[in-house]
Amino acid sequence: MSFFESDVVRSEMAEISDLQEQVYQSVFKFPSMNKEDKLHHVNLLQRLLEKQNVLYTRLSLSDDPEAQEMKSRILDSARMMGLPSHIDISIIFNDMNKMINAMKEQIDKS
C-alpha cells in the first residue's frame, strides 16, 4: 500500500484541508474579531500547524517514492519563499508554534 492510500494519512490530509479552509475564511476578519473569536482562530491555526508538522514528519520517515516527492515539493516551495537551504524545516515549525503562543498571550492581555 502506498503512503497516500493509508486511511490515517488520508484522514489527516482531509483534516488539514478542512483546517486550512477554516483559517483562510476568517483570516481577513481577524483584526475586527472579538477576543473569543481571535483565540478560536489562533487555536485553529495552531491545530493546523501541528497537523502539518505531523504529516511532514510522516513524509520524512516514509520510503514511499510519492511521499518523498511530496516532501521535496514542500521543501522546494519553502526554499522559493526564502527558507535557506541549511535550515531544517522543523525549526520553522517550532518557530511558528512560538509565534502562535505569543499571539495567544497578546490576545489574552488585551
Characterise this structure:
With 110 residues, the chain is mainly α. The chain is 76% helix and 0% strand. The chain has four helices and no strands. The longest helix is centred in the middle third of the chain and has 27 residues, at 35-61. The chain is globular, with a radius of gyration of 16 Å.
Please write out the topology:
Blueprint: H1 7-26, H2 35-61, H3 65-80, H4 89-109
Short recap of the structure:
By secondary structure, the chain is an all-alpha fold. It is built from 4 helices and no strands.
How many separate domains? 1
Morphology: globular
Largest β sheet strand count, sense and barrel closure: none
Percent helix, as a range, is over 70%
Report the oligomer.
single chain
Mean pLDDT: 95
Key terms:
mainly alpha; 110 residues
